[in-house]
Amino acid sequence: MQGWSALEVKVREIVEKFNTSDKKIKLAVIIGLIGILLLGMSEAIPKNKSENKSEKVSYAAYTSELEEKTKEIISSIDGVGECKVMITLKNTNENIFAKNNQENTNGSNYSTESEYVLYNGENGEEPVLIKEYFPEVKGVVVVCGGADDVTVRENVINCVSSLYAIPSTKISVSKLKK
Question: Between vectors from CA 153 to CA 151 and to CA 157, what angle results, nearest 5°?
Fold first, then answer.
């Protein structure tokens, strides 16, 4: 806050030096000084990097994150104890990009042309991403300490089935080796 008080003193000195009877000019100078101050402050404040929608997420990182979150949820179920999770996915990411389509008809001839819509991004021209589909979960294996209890096993299967909308036949729950 000391920086603010020193800045206030300088602004007041400038306003006092600018001694004129026209209040409109004083007001304009004060507003101008405040604007300059705000511009200077905006450069000093760190900007949050917003996530770019077209940012690439690796298959392994995505799978690892799913496994970690699933492990966290499953281990909070009563009686599960220590657990490990492995998830398999059906495919990789699929991206849908914006396109300009042009149809040409000349008499009996028909043709279509399409090209991606581009914008100037950080790395030059980039296509406009409309939608991104993440891979679907194909199967889940859970190995946990409480898997020998039928109730715990059923709770884990129901939890995983609900999380990923997959049938219980695609979920395996086994006892953790000691």
Answer: 115
- Pick the range with the lowest mean pLDDT from 22-26, 161-165, 174-178: 22-26
For the segment 138-158, the average pLDDT, to the nearest whole number, is 93
CA dihedral 72, 78, 81, 86 (to 10 degrees): -40
Q: Please state whether 40 falls in left (phi above 0), alpha (psi between -120 and 50) or beta.
A: alpha
Q: In what order do the strands lie in the sheet with 137-144?
A: 83-89, 137-144, 171-175
For the CA atoms of 67, 69, 73, 75, what is the dihedral angle to 10 degrees?
A: 60
In angstroms and rounded to an integer, the radius of gyration of the C-alpha atoms of the chain is: 31
Q: What is the bridge-based pairing of β-strands 99-106 and 124-127? A: unpaired
Separation CA 87–CA 146 (nearest Å): 19
CB 167 within 8 A of CB 161: yes
What stretches of the chain adopt beta strand conformation (E)? 83-89, 94-97, 99-106, 109-116, 118-121, 124-127, 129-133, 137-144, 171-175
Stated pTM of the model:
0.54
What is residue 54's DSSP assignment? T
The confidence score (pLDDT) of residue 124 equals 79
pLDDT (tens digit per residue) in 72-104: 999 999 999 999 999 999 877 788 888 888 888
